[in-house]
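Posting for a labmate who doesn't have an account.
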Amino acid sequence: MRLPLLSPAALTAEQKPLYADMKSGIENNFKGFKAIADNGSLIGPWNPWLNFPKFGGPVWELVKALSLSPTLPRPVREIAILVTGTHFHSGYELYAHVLVAEMRGLDDDLIATIVSGQKPASLQGDESVAYDAAYALVNGGVLPEMGYKRLVQHFTLQGAAEFINLVGLYCAVSVTLNGFDVPVPDEP
């Protein structure tokens, strides 16, 4: 880990409101994995964002925009996030979203196949579209026209926009986690 965890008592005036908003958001919306240390410090991507609120504040606003009232089905979202985390070999992201995917009802074998970098043969419909689009997006270049049309057909234009921005967000999350060498917590 390249950044020490920020203790709530050591926060600057600029960091305090961001900390309060992130802590509340985590407690209310990000369940099933460890994101807050026993002393109240935020872990995962929240610590780097809190260390640099000029960047972390806007990213947190995007997280809230994409997470608090999503229109995409939860399994579709988790498949997109797992494909993205797998592409970047992002340990904390995979740790958190494997647990969330299990809570959302995704089968362990399906999750394991995605995390191994392969498309599960069992994926159908929306979930297959999600895998293909996320895979294409994280592997660079323009999303193929057929993939874009399938996103819009399955999720509407608004849903396709949400999906594309979700993958972009988790690319940024993965790079943040990897750049600051954020570890997986020792305990769940």
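Reply:
Got it, the structure tokens are right above this. The chain has two domains: 8-67, 74-179.
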